[in-house]
Amino acid sequence: MIELNNVSKTYANGVNALNNIDIFIEKGEFVYVVGPSGAGKSSFIKMIYREERPTEGSIQIHGTDLMTLKEKHVPFLRRKIGVVFQDFKLLPKLSVFENVAFALEVIEEPKDVIRRRVMEVLDIVKLKNKARFLPDELSGGEQQRVSIARAVVNNPRVVIADEPTGNLDPDTSWEIMEILENINRNGTTVLMATHNREIVNAIKKRVIAIEGGRVVRDEPKGDYGYER
């Protein structure tokens, strides 16, 4: 599903964010990406959905070569990838329903399809009864659930979660993880960057650890592995 070959990233200011990364992620895997701040996790995540491009190497997502992909085709790639951010990135003046529906309106789905699919995913994240609420009327956990609903409404092949529990209390974090696990059980590949030691150690999945821009561990059922 995701393949990185000899990927390096050097920014204009000379910072080497990633060095010779080789990673292969199969369809349906759930993978944690861990490591200290500044290790290169964010650069790695951003390259998967083509917000950043590598300086060297190649990246393929479900057979699509991101290095040769034309800019006009990037939006089509992103329709196959759902992204969940730490700070939610909801549109403040749109309702819960409208925030989730926006992803389908962009691709001009029929209104009846939009309504049916949006209500389906809101049911999955247990927010069907708050479809008409605005984001600022929701708790942080509820806003993150809207973000997840928006990420999966297109039935993406991959969901990338960038610190999805970073701004949430422990109980709410476990609720978010339950939703992500359910999405994964339905066949979607999940790639999650996190600093949440408790979750990584309790919910055993593949762990890729990045330090100094390099992969230092890749374990099928790993631990977080860093001291507090």
Automatic annotation (TrEMBL):
Entry function: Part of the ABC transporter FtsEX involved in cellular division.
Gene name of the record: ftsE
Localization (cell): Cell membrane
InterPro entries listed in its UniProt record: AAA+_ATPase, ABC_transporter-like_ATP-bd, ABC_transporter-like_CS, ABC_transpr_LolD-like, Cell_div_FtsE, P-loop_NTPase
PANTHER family, sorted: CELL DIVISION ATP-BINDING PROTEIN FTSE (PTHR24220:SF470), IMPORT ATP-BINDING PROTEIN (PTHR24220)
GO cellular component terms attached to this protein's record: plasma membrane
Quaternary structure (record): Homodimer. Forms a membrane-associated complex with FtsX.
Protein name stated in the entry: Cell division ATP-binding protein FtsE
Gene Ontology terms: biological process: cell division
Cell division keyword on record: yes
Entry's family note: Belongs to the ABC transporter superfamily.
Keywords: ATP-binding, Cell cycle, Cell division, Cell membrane, Membrane, Nucleotide-binding, Transport
A single MF term (Gene Ontology): ATP hydrolysis activity
Domain ABC transporter span(s) in chain numbering: 2-227
Mode of membrane association: Peripheral membrane protein
Main subcellular location: membrane
Entries under NCBIfam families matching the protein: FtsE
